[in-house]
Amino acid sequence: MASRLQIEYAIARGRTLDWMVENLGATAKQIDDTVRYLDRLNAEKDCQIRPRSRVPRKPHGTSAAYRRHMRRGETPCDECRVGNALARAKYRKKAA
After folding, report:
1. CA angle centred on 39, ends 6 and 42, rounded to 5°
2. How many degrees, rounded to 5, is the angle at CA 37 between CA 31 and CA 43?
3. What pTM was estimated for this model as a whole?
């Protein structure tokens, strides 16, 4: 039997009804009650999903952009590789 919190998390992650029944052991009534509960909360708060961050991303050619490429599993662009190499060289020089 699944808890409401588990079902809420599964809904937030975009899981299907079948997935919740198979993997969480949730009943259709539990899922329906949770969906109604979330709808009521959203209606009361009139909430909107906020963006993850209000800080703009660093541009390409910086070490932050290089790390963003790596975090996403992408091959870093040439600008980012050069920017990261320069930042690392500057850090090593400063540390020595």
Report:
1. 100
2. 135
3. 0.45
